[in-house]
UniProtKB/TrEMBL annotation:
Species name: Comamonas nitrativorans
Protein's recorded name: GntR family transcriptional regulator
Domain of life: Bacteria
SUPFAM superfamilies named among the record's database cross-references: Winged helix' DNA-binding domain (SSF46785)
Pfam families given in the database record: GntR
Span of domain HTH gntR-type: 14-82
């Protein structure tokens, strides 16, 4: 994985460290970063996106606490050995919580009925599955 694989939006309402946590969690869950994949260093990510290294460090520490990443001596942070698929479903769904809360808020602000939002979500989930 390279530092530029992360898409950071400094103007977004979501804090930058949460953007990093969410993106890395989703990349791991999707299998795009298999166990053992080395993550870019804190300095590399901070320099590539012109952000504070402490922000990246905070994200990596949170990912380590969640068991998504593990610190390996001499290698830095790598994707944890336990495949994401073996994690409990509730834990994997938890990775979607920020995006689901944002979706729910936007749907309420737009005055959309829950059934219409669920139908649209269902269609998005099945895109490309056929």
């Amino acid at each position: 994985m390279e530092a530029m694989n992360l898409h950071i939006e400094p103007a977004a309402p979501e804090p930058i460290y949460r953007q990093i946590v969410g993106q890395v969690t989703r990349l791991v869950a999707a299998g795009q970063c298999p166990p053992g994949t080395r993550l870019p260093s804190v300095r590399d990510v901070a320099a590539a996106h012109a952000i504070n290294p402490m922000t990246v460090s905070k994200a990596y520490t949170q990912l380590e606490a969640q068991g998504v990443l593990e610190r390996q001596r001499g290698k830095g942070m790598v994707v944890a050995a336990q495949p994401q698929e073996q994690r409990p479903q509730a834990e994997r769904l938890g990775a979607l919580a920020p995006a689901l809360h944002a979706l729910a808020l936007q749907a309420r602000q737009l005055g959309l009925p829950p059934a219409a939002v669920l139908e649209a979500l269902h269609a998005c989930l099945h895109e490309g599955a056929e």
